[in-house]
Specification:
heterodimer, A: 698 residues, alpha/beta, Rossmann fold, 10-stranded mixed β-sheet, 6-stranded mixed β-sheet, 36 strands, 27% strand, B: 536 residues, alpha+beta, 2 domains, 7-stranded antiparallel β-sheet, 4-stranded mixed β-sheet, 22% strand, globular
């Protein structure tokens, strides 16, 4: 792909980012407001604008890569198609009764998220398989025909089919789909054994319902977008970025749109992974902070951490269990309500709390002077001197320090009898502590220790908070890359073609099913290959994984498999691999217990050229100077001091900056404390390190 | 408020993060189904006097207060002079821990140099403790399994192999049980290391000043929250099915300016079966009910729990004493929350919900070979199931959702992978929610049977069959539960019974009570009940 003209388009909740990559790898970008009624409009306008400015003919563009929150939004706003669920008799309510638990123990008035498909739209047929996939109750064509007639009368546009144990045997689901497709060719059908053949009916049914629900909408959007791109002269292939961080064809995306959920944030993690490879940092913490949330992901061995399930629309304080689970391969990240617009308040304990409510972009933080009265993180940053009133963001907003101060006084200062400055210190420390704690807990959940990680910070808010976060986390290195404001869209251009096929298949080391396992792995590889081949003929890599646990445990850990089929030594080999992985996770293994293999995954990815490595240098050749400065609070000293104001565009490669300082650019501000040192790198990145108070490099 | 106090706030948040990490470590390594599926665990940090400073929110109400009180017993029984760096202590004493032998509590002292600065403690429900196995059938706690007094599991870094051997030889699934005890010790160790790193980062010698700050803040907020209940005496009684005869649960709650005290005089006597509740466990569900109603924002620590005290005469079922059997104390214990909320409902009319299904309808069975000529290995099965919760003053009750327990259900597909069971039906039970301005949560209907030549032997522990959840403020009661075989044979709600190989067991789980006059239900909500088939 190197040497071609390519475009990345990221449609986010507030902004649509377009990046054009030139033949030589350099890029230009533009940011437009997202056009919610027809998201393709902002993309088309942005692409036309950027091509015109760069004097590029759209006919010369070789690829357009697109990621969008449209699928996520349709699920959150419940704006999908009229959809029915057809399921096994006896299991009509699986997606409504969920886990039968409350995600918040201490709330009598808890409201559980309503099911995506209401009870009246959930229908049953008599059929049943057991856990081995054998038929207990046969499928009845006549009953299915009668149900299809009823579905026709109701006028559903889309149907989800989810039968018990179909991950093991999809025959009944396929039979129903074929009957339905023959009778009602205009109705879209999604079956769970294709969309997400994983054990656990609640997650699988929810996933197939989500897919069916957004499928008509996404299919029509994708077709519209492709046609209009062609009409403007961009006849090159259009590819979609999926939640697992790879590319897929428009046809695949239209059939399995649930795999597009969270594709934008996935781009951010790929962006960080690409930089990690470029700088040779094999343990990276990716930190993306925007207006509403902060997202943190771990990137190890230049690969973002992945997971097999994701919760859409966590309604309550981003709490686990308050959303809608979908079982798809995703880049794993933790998201917390800590963004520039997050609102500060004081609780009954006199504790400062931040978020998850956000002032968003309308009305925005109090300082925007658009009617916002609540104190936000941005207001505190302004009060503390980290933001300059005239140099905020790319927009035309001038910040009002007086309004920020009033809001801080009202929301936090008065309740706690604090002056506004101290209150702002409190807001900033609490939000930094929240992000730090989230990162730590995320690491523990993954059995990792963050010692020795390098932080890569992007998104409008992250560079302002990142230096404080590395202090709190004890990290030694921070990188603020160029293009931080459009990181996700740049990440799209770094993504390989990839597809991960997953299926539940249960066997144990005590009676290992060699043939069954080999067959499952072969079928998964075939499925993943066929998706990737829709996009590329390039060389591919194959990564095979199995999720294993001790018999009796409920949580599996991933074990990577060597190439080649299993033979009679498989059980021994897998037991040894699992034991090693378990020890790495938990420090000790347990002898003589049977080990279970629960689900299998094959990921096929096109080989990406490794970026040329760039050596990071901390020691500056010369120091940048600045005549301008302003008073800024430094949490490491607990006092304000004069911070140099440096324009990022004025820094030459090799130049250093000694904190306290602020490095400003159009879309963000990088803050350095007194003990932070920064050096501009050859590729435009800021490389920030810490010295301990005695002055030695740490 | 000063900058110093701000500093304490940040450290308080950090301390909560430390105990969250401690709890997560445990969830990831536990073998016990109830730990990993139901969050039946607890983790916390204590000051050197044994007062709980912070507790992970990942936990179940049954361990609130019980584990908090346990650490003082550890200090007392080990003896302050015998507490050394590198030690780990263990117990499963129902009266010093969390109410039954299946919960193991592990406590680890934390030292800086030679100075004791505090403790980490954690509790988990283990898969087996020997004895008769988990169930209500023992007549004395001696039959319920191994009782480990407060002992050293590790002394100065040396594992107590004698104790490990005793545990190994006295439980089924020894690897998993010993593994879980090691897991508890490991999660405390995670907490200990994080705490020491935190003290280092904030340059603190110990947590005394921080604990004082946390307790002062919490005490004030707790007492403020109590102001919403006028001082006075409030009473309530509730009838539940009990093991073999209907029980009366009675509470008298005295509200003063310093706290709330619940006395359970008037409650029925202890049972001959293991449904008896140690007072510490009743206290946990009383405290939970009051905190969830009055101060949901407050963290659990010594100062938020201290204002809630309990008493009961000897010999009542909410004050089981040694050697009463207590294995399934949760069945009656879970009703204590509704009992105590009911007492204060008249003064908190906009807060307290109607009564709910309360006790879980767990299906815990042994699958045994149905044929002597074709022997098969026995398999133990466990399913957590919940009925409906009571309607809230402004919101309908929750359908098929646990309250006050924090349990989650398990996937039908996963359950069928593990054992010879077919679950034919698990769906909402229409018409089971009590009518009201706000409707009670619906129960569910479960139909299940043995597979592959097995039969089931199980100890039923199902309540609210004779005594449905009552409505509040004019709301109607929820539907009572029912248990029977698919050929119509009625089953008892309690006691050992058999599901033959060719039969299916049907469980109709109770619904929650309604709130307010049914005639005042919003017409749209009523119409939707019909449309969705919640009401037929």
């Amino acid at each position: 792909m190197a040497g071609s003209l390519r475009i990345g388009a990221d449609v986010g909740g507030t902004f649509t980012d377009i990046v054009l990559e030139h033949h030589d790898g350099s890029f230009v970008s533009t940011k437009l407001l997202t056009t919610h009624d027809a998201p393709e409009r902002a993309i088309l306008d942005g692409i036309s604008e950027i091509a015109r400015d760069a004097q590029v003919d759209l006919a010369d563009v070789s690829q357009i890569i697109h990621g969008t929150t449209l699928a996520t939004n349709a699920l959150i706003e419940r704006s999908g198609a009229p959809t029915a669920l057809v399921t096994t008799a006896g299991f009509r309510d699986v997606i409504e009764t969920r886990t039968e638990s409350r995600f918040e123990q201490y709330d009598l008035n808890i409201v559980l998220p309503p099911p995506l498909i209401e009870r009246k739209d959930r229908h049953v047929v008599n059929e049943r398989l057991n856990a081995r996939g054998d038929v207990l109750v046969p499928f009845d064509d006549a009953e299915a025909h009668a149900l299809i007639d009823r579905l026709d009368q109701t006028g559903y546009e889309s149907v989800a089919v989810g039968f018990i144990h179909s991950y093991r045997n999809g025959e009944h689901e396929r039979r129903f789909r074929d009957l339905l497709a023959a009778a009602l060719p205009d109705v879209s059908v999604s079956i769970s054994s294709e969309v997400s053949p994983q054990m656990r009916e609640y997650e699988r049914f929810n996933t197939v319902c989500a897919n069916a629900y957004i499928r008509p909408l996404m299919a029509s959007y994708l077709v519209r977008l492709r046609d209009q791109l062609r009409a403007r002269g961009a006849s090159c292939p259009l590819y979609m970025i999926h939640s697992g961080g790879g590319l897929m064809s428009v046809e695949s995306a239209a059939a399995f749109p649930v795999r597009l959920v969270e594709s934008g944030p996935a781009g951010g993690a790929i962006f960080a992974a690409d930089l990690a490879a470029r700088y040779g940092r094999d343990r990276v913490l990716s930190f993306d902070m925007g207006g509403t949330t902060a997202k943190i992901a771990m990137v190890e061995g230049y690969t973002p951490q992945t997971a097999k399930t994701f919760e859409v629309d966590r309604t309550a304080r981003f709490k686990k269990g308050s959303g809608m689970p979908v079982s798809i391969p995703v880049i794993e990240m933790i998201e917390i309500g800590a963004g520039g617009g997050s609102i500060a308040r004081v609780d009954s304990l006199g504790q400062i709390r931040i978020g998850p409510n956000s002032a968003g972009s309308e009305p925005g933080p109090a300082a925007y002077n658009r009617g916002g009265a609540d104190a936000t993180v941005t207001d505190a940053n302004l009060e503390l001197g980290r933001l300059h009133p005239d140099t905020f963001g790319a927009t035309d907003i001038d910040l009002s320090p007086a309004l920020a101060r009033d809001a801080i006084t009202g929301s936090v200062g008065r309740p706690l009898e604090m002056d506004p400055f101290t209150a702002a210190v409190g807001i900033s420390e609490v939000v930094d502590e929240n992000m730090t704690n989230a990162a730590r807990v995320h690491a523990v959940e993954n059995g990792k220790d963050l010692t020795g990680f390098t932080m890569i910070a992007f998104g409008g808010g992250a560079p302002m908070h990142a230096s404080r976060l590395i202090d709190k986390l004890g990290l030694d290195e921070l990188i603020v890359p160029p293009g931080a404001g459009v990181g996700s869209a740049i990440g799209f251009l770094r993504a390989p073609f990839s597809y991960e096929a997953i299926r539940s298949f249960y066997t144990t080391t005590a009676d290992f099913d060699v043939d069954g396992t080999n067959q499952v792995l072969a079928e998964l590889a075939e499925e993943a290959h066929s998706f990737v081949r829709e996009g590329t003929d390039a060389e591919v890599t194959i990564d095979r994984q199995v999720a294993m646990r001790y018999k009796g445990q409920g949580w599996e850990i991933p074990v990577h498999l060597d190439a080649g089929p299993f033979d009679e030594l498989a059980a021994e080999l897998l037991a040894a691999k699992f034991t090693k992985a378990y020890e790495e996770f938990f420090g000790r293994a347990i002898d003589d217990l049977t080990i279970e293999a629960v689900s299998w995954a094959v990921r096929v990815s096109s080989v990406q050229a490794r970026p040329d490595t760039v050596e990071l240098v901390a020691e500056p050749d010369s120091m940048a100077t600045s005549s301008a400065s302003r008073s800024m609070f430094d949490p490491s000293t607990g006092a304000s001091s004069e911070a140099a104001i440096i324009h990022r565009s004025d820094l030459d490669p090799g130049q250093g900056v000694i904190g306290p300082a602020v490095i400003i650019e159009a879309q963000t501000t990088t803050v350095l404390g007194a003990h932070h040192r920064c050096r501009m790198q050859a590729d435009g990145s800021l490389f920030i390190t810490r010295i301990d108070p005695s002055g030695d490099a740490s | 408020m000063s900058g110093q106090e701000l500093h304490y706030q940040v450290m308080w948040n950090r301390l909560i993060s430390v105990v969250e990490e401690q709890a997560l470590t445990l969830v990831r390594t536990a073998f016990s189904t109830s730990v990993r599926e139901a969050g039946d665990l607890s983790a916390g940090v204590f000051d050197r006097a044994g007062r709980m400073v912070a507790q992970a929110v990942t936990g179940t109400p049954g361990h609130v207060n019980t584990m908090a009180a346990a650490v003082a017993h550890f200090i007392n029984d080990i003896g302050p002079e015998r507490i050394y760096p590198g030690d780990v202590y263990v117990t499963n004493d129902p009266w010093k821990g969390t109410g039954h032998l299946h919960d193991i509590t592990v406590t680890t002292p934390v030292f800086t140099g030679d100075e004791l600065i505090g403790f980490f403690a954690s509790t988990a429900h283990v898969v087996d403790v020997g004895g008769r196995g988990y169930g209500p059938d023992a007549r004395e706690v001696y039959e319920e399994g191994l009782r480990i007094p407060i002992l050293k599991w590790v002394e100065r870094g040396e594992l107590n192999h004698d104790l490990v051997t005793i545990v190994r030889q006295n439980v089924r699934e020894a690897d998993q049980v010993v593994g879980d005890i090691h897991g508890l010790a490991a999660c405390n160790e995670t907490g200990r290391r994080r705490l020491l790193a935190m003290l280092d980062e904030f340059d603190l010698p110990d947590i005394e000043a921080l604990a004082t700050f946390i307790f002062d803040r919490t005490r004030k907020a707790t007492l403020d929250a109590l102001q919403s209940v006028p001082q006075g005496t409030y009473t309530n009684t509730m009838q539940v099915d009990g093991y073999d005869e209907t029980l009366t649960l009675a509470a008298t709650i005295d509200v003063t300016d310093s706290g709330m005290h619940a006395d359970f005089t008037g409650t029925s006597p202890t049972s001959a079966f293991g449904v008896n509740v140690p007072l510490t466990y009743a206290q946990a569900y009383f405290t939970y009910g009051m905190l969830v109603a009055l101060a949901p924002e407050l963290p659990n620590n010594f100062a938020s729990l201290a204002p809630f005290t309990v008493s009961a005469p000897p010999g009542v079922i909410l004050n089981a004493e040694h050697p009463d059997p207590v294995a399934v104390r949760h069945v009656i214990g879970h009703f204590v929350t509704d009992l105590c909320l009911g007492a204060v409902a008249t003064v908190l009319p906009d807060v307290v919900p109607a009564e709910g299904a309360g006790a879980l309808w767990n299906f815990q069975a042994s699958a045994r070979s149905a044929s002597k000529t074709d022997p098969k290995p026995p398999v133990e099965l466990l399913m957590f199931n919940s009925g409906g919760t009571g309607a809230r003053p402004t919101i309908d009750g929750l359908t098929a959702t646990a309250f006050p327990s924090g349990v989650r259900t398990m996937s039908v597909e996963a359950t069928e992978q593990i054992g010879p069971i077919i679950i034919w039906r698990k769906e909402i039970r229409p018409d089971s929610g009590g009518a009201g301005r706000q409707r009670g949560g619906l129960g569910q209907t479960i139909e299940l049977g043995p597979a592959d030549g097995y039969l089931f032997e199980f100890s039923a522990m199902f309540d609210r069959i004779q005594n449905p959840a009552r409505g509040r403020s004019g709301g109607e009661p929820g539907a009572p539960g029912a248990v029977y075989l698919d050929d119509g044979t009625p089953f008892a709600g309690k006691g050992k019974q058999t599901v033959p190989a060719d039969r299916r067991l049907i469980l109709e789980l109770p619904g929650g009570g309604g709130f307010g006059d049914p005639a005042r239900r919003d017409p749209d909500a009523a119409a939707n009940d019909q449309t969705q088939g919640y009401v037929t």
